[in-house]
Amino acid sequence: MPAPGSETTRTVTVEAPSDEVWPWIVQLGQGRGGFYSYSWLEKPVGADIHNADRIAPEFQRLAEGDSIRMVKEDYWLRSPMTSMTVEKVDPGRTLVLRGHDGGTWTFHLEPIDDGTTRFVVRGRAPQQSLLGRIVRYLAYELPHFVMERGMMRGIKTRAERTGRTGDDPSPA
């Protein structure tokens, strides 16, 4: 998005190589690996998210144009906001999702050394009116910050656990 109306960038250092972090990112989504966040916050709104604690081989491939659901298919809120489209996949490095409004959600891995990765998540939203920015901040950005932080910590924990146990995170 060349001229976003707003942008957020969040990062966390993961004590695992990027090839142990990527499998958790590529399987994001409802009906896939989940979002590794706070299920107890998702359940009251009926999102029906189940967070995986293992790498699922069937969810390790994404292609441009694929859809990633944010909630179950028969969710009570029928809206284009309930899914995102895969805009770009650079395997092992970057996943970019695009929303119905043109906004993007980017997941990027930057290796620091052989056993450490910088995990960056960036959200970009299109230009909006002042009222639109206020509503977006209150209704979306605040809860999204909490959930996204939980997701990043969930991915970090899973990838670091894989490294400590020596389990192979790659699909068979």
TrEMBL record:
Q: What is this protein called?
A: SRPBCC family protein
Its ancestry begins with: Archaea, Methanobacteriati, Methanobacteriota, Stenosarchaea group, Halobacteria
